[in-house]
Write a structure and sequence with these properties.
single chain; mainly alpha; 77% helix; globular
Length: 265
C-alpha cells in the first residue's frame, strides 16, 4: 500500500469518528441553545420537564464511560432541581494522566452524551420497531463511502425515508418523543469539550499505530479495518440524522412559541 492510500485511510477513519461526532455535537448545541432561548422566562421549566429523561441519560453516559476507561467517579448527580448554579446534573471523576487507556478515555467521557445518545436511539428503535431497525441496518450496511460516496448517501437517506412508513404506529411516536428528550440534553458543556480534547491525541495515536501495523502486515487488512470503521460511523450517522431532524422540528416549534408570545405582548 502506498503512502497516499495510507494517509487517505487514516483521514477517513478520523472523519467518521472524531469528525462526525464533533460536527454533530456542534450542530445539536446550536439547535438546543436557540430552542431554550426562544422560551424566554419559561426556558427553565421546559428544561426541567425534558431533563427528567434527558439529563440522566447525559450524565449516565459520562458515568458509563468513566467505568469503561477506569476513571474514578468522585461525585455524581444524575438529576437535581433548584441547584445554586442551575446545574441539572454532573459527574466528577479523576484519572491517571500517565495511563494511556485512561487518557484516551477522556475523549470518550467527554463525547459520551452524543455517542451513547446515538446508540440508545438505535436500541430504542430495535425494541420498538424491530422490523424497521433491520430494514435500516440492511440499508446502512450496504453504504460504501470509501468507494461510492454518492451511492452511500443515497443508501442512508433511503433508510431514513423508510422510517416514515411507520408514522401511523404508536411505537414510532414513542421513539420520536424519547428521542426528543434525549436530543434536547445532548449538548456538550465546555467541560465536556475540554475533557474530550485532552484525549484526542491518544485516540489518534492508537489509530495511527494500528494502521501502521496493518499496512506493514497486509494492505488489505488496513482497507478492511477502515471499512469497518466507516460502517460503524455510517450507522451512527444515520441516527445523528434522525436526531438532527428532531432537533430542527423542535427548533421550529420553539420559534412558533416565541412568535405567539410576542403576538400576545
Amino acid at each position: 500500500m502506498d503512502f497516499g492510500s495510507f494517509i487517505l485511510n487514516f483521514i477517513l477513519q478520523m472523519a467518521f469518528t472524531l469528525g462526525l461526532i464533533f460536527l454533530y455535537g456542534k450542530a445539536v448545541a446550536l439547535c438546543n441553545g436557540a430552542f431554550y432561548r426562544n422560551f424566554g422566562a419559561q426556558a427553565r421549566a421546559v428544561c426541567y420537564v425534558t431533563g427528567f429523561i434527558g439529563t440522566p441519560v447525559h450524565e449516565g453516559s459520562h458515568a458509563l464511560m468513566c467505568l469503561i476507561f477506569g476513571h474514578k467517579i468522585t461525585d455524581i448527580k444524575l438529576f437535581q432541581l433548584n441547584s445554586s448554579d442551575g446545574t441539572l446534573g454532573y459527574v466528577h471523576h479523576s484519572y491517571n494522566p500517565r495511563n494511556w487507556w485512561q487518557k484516551t478515555g477522556c475523549l470518550f467521557i467527554g463525547i459520551a452524551p452524543v455517542l451513547v445518545g446515538g446508540l440508545l436511539l438505535a436500541g430504542l428503535l430495535y425494541l420498538l420497531l424491530p422490523d424497521l431497525f433491520l430494514s435500516v441496518a440492511g440499508g446502512i450496511t450496504s453504504a460504501d463511502f470509501a468507494g461510492d460516496p454518492g451511492g452511500a448517501l443515497a443508501d442512508v437517506f433511503g433508510a431514513f425515508a423508510d422510517m416514515f412508513g411507520y408514522i401511523g404506529t404508536w411505537q414510532w411516536w414513542v421513539f420520536i418523543l424519547a428521542g426528543s428528550f434525549i436530543a434536547l440534553h445532548m449538548t456538550l458543556s465546555r467541560e465536556d469539550v475540554k475533557g474530550a480534547l485532552s484525549g484526542i491525541a491518544a485516540f489518534a495515536a492508537a489509530f495511527l499505530a494500528a494502521d501502521i501495523v496493518l499496512a506493514v502486515v497486509n494492505g488489505e487488512y488496513l482497507a478492511a479495518f477502515t471499512g469497518g470503521v466507516l460502517a460503524c460511523g455510517t450507522f451512527l450517522l444515520f441516527f445523528f440524522c434522525v436526531f438532527t431532524v428532531i432537533s430542527l422540528v423542535l427548533l421550529a416549534v420553539s420559534f412558533i412559541v416565541r412568535a405567539v408570545r410576542r403576538g400576545r405582548a
